[in-house]
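Question (not urgent): is this output format expected?
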Amino acid sequence: MADHTQELRRLMQVVGISSFRSLGSHSQVSLNAIAKLRKGQADLISYKDLASLSKSLKISLEDLVSKFSQIQPISPNQVTELTKSDKLEVQQEVVAKLESMLLQLPTAAYAITKNPDLPARNLLALFRPLENLLRDWGIEAIAAVGIEIEYNPQLHQPMDGSESVQAGDRVLVRYTGYRWGDRLLYRARVSRITPNP
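Got this back:
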């Protein structure tokens, strides 16, 4: 463990603080926090205490952490590399989860062109990997296609001349919408249900 006592004393001298106790009093931080700073453990000190110390020592928070921490700062190039790596990892995860769909869907499309009477029900299983991926990521359907529900302008988008629909009116879900946690991704598209005469 590196000893940063001399570096800290030098910074204190520049601003006219003569002792660690005075630094603690001036910064309103404990002697324990100052001891961590002297040991190069700035990463173990609370943000509030670090901010107070940086103000008392007239040094930027970034410089304080950089000088009194074992953790090396990340360069912009490293951030870019991490971002590329994270993106590649997510892409690989998506491809792995959708693998069966990617492999079988083109074959199913070809089979349909050769045999237009092929029951569509046989194709539903091909979409399970996509459903599983959405579930794993916490993306939920707002409403299933074909159900009748009460119109909610926050969750539903009227279509086909149904713009005059009011909250609480019965509507038919034509296209499902999605939300991701508390974030709305797509509104479900709905049409007004006309009452039977």
